[in-house]
Amino acid sequence: xxxxxxxxxxxxxxxxxxxxxxxxxxxxxxxxxxxxxxxxxxxxxxxxxxxxxxxxxxxxxxxxxxxxxxxxxxxxxxxxxxxxxxxxxxxxxxxxxxxxxxxxxxxxxxxxxxxxxxxxxxxxxxxxxxxxxxxxxxxxxxxxxxxxxxxxxxxxxxxxxxxxxxxxxxxxxxxxxxxxxxxxxxxxxxxxxxxxxxxxxxxxxxxxxxxxxxxxxxxxxxxxxxxxxxxxxxxxxxxxxxxxxxxxxxxxxxxxxxxxxxxxxxxxxxxxxxxxxxxxxxxxxxxxxxxxxxxxxxxxxxxxxxxxxxxxxxxxxxxxxxxxxxxxx
Length: 329
Hints:
The protein is an all-alpha fold and 329 residues long. It is 76% helix and 0% strand. The chain has one domain. The protein has helices at 3-22, 26-50, 58-61, 64-81, 83-87, 97-117, 121-146, 151-173, 180-207, 228-248, 252-277, 282-305, 317-324.
């Protein structure tokens, strides 16, 4: 009988956490459930099929589709639960705000499932790239044109553009032989686009170190999070180094992979505590967490689309090999 109170005490924190989770508002609970479901499905696929075949840094790159798909599911669920709030930001000249909000929500969830489990992932990532590009043309670019000096509008426009580029980069890795040349060109364009975006973000980190790291959005760093200069200048340095490597195509695959790992680490170490401090606030907690994870996953997708560098034989070794070969005469 004495073991019963001990057992209850052991499971009490878990029960309390479960009750707190179930008490979240439906708008937030749906995003958590969608994100966790895709995370589990994607990890099962990755650890069974992709990671065992990868070597070295590519084992982390293999998780890119998972980190990319989870935020897609989160934002898709948000479209379905916070429909009216999201519909309000659609330009007024576009008819059927509710319809398009629900349509995009279903499309995001479908793309998340497809990319996580690798079923029709090439088609899903291609359509996703076009969708994000439409967001840039129809919403972000007009907003930026009306306020060209708004640095947050600049950051949001470049964010959507990088998501579009990395979606196409994923599609390029899944193209068949018929489209291989076009896919390589698309991956090259994506590398240049993302390289320019991360360099712009790095400049913002050095000019405005008081704002949250990675994607320079409008929220300032909370006072309770320590080491503000480390987050700002450390992430800014990583961004500029990786961006220059991508533009120069010098160890670009490694640079994109390492930057993706850095961003995902920032998600865990910076945005994880932020989410834990605001679990019921979808704008401050979940959206910043998912948005930054999305960018980290996108960088890993880009890394997967860049061909690995092969070591060239040294100039000293070539004559030795030639002299040891039998003469043709």
